[in-house]
Amino acid sequence: MRWKLWAKWEEVVGPTIAKNAEPVGFQRGVLYVWVRNSSWMQQMIFMKDPIRDTINQKFENNFVKYIKFTLDRREVPTEDTSTFKEMIQRIAPESDDD
Fold first, then answer.
1. 1-5, 77-81, 85-89: which has the minimum mean pLDDT?
2. Section 31-39 average pLDDT
3. Helix (H/G/I), strand (E/B), else coil: 53
4. 12 and 51 Cβ atoms separated by less than 8 Å
5. Chain centroid to CA 53: how far?
6. Helix (H) or strand (E) holding 27
7. Which residues are within 8 A (CB) of 94 and not within 5 positions of it... i.e. 6 or more apart?
């Protein structure tokens, strides 16, 4: 679902915003959006709810619960794969018997 959002970002927010802000992460219902500078950060804060509502209308209701803006792409959390790895280990444990 999030890859569709990335691909259709300009369609969702319009060309002007798309040139100055882009999605850089998604985790547990939180969309992380990088913005070009502090002026755009201020503008995007006012547009947060309409953008979230548009995304949820176009894709899936409650897909995005909250939007966080950042000026630094490195502040975006990486996906936590430990839970996924634990689940896989329980389903298909590694064994030396093979």
1. 85-89
2. 95
3. helix
4. yes
5. 14
6. strand 21-27
7. none
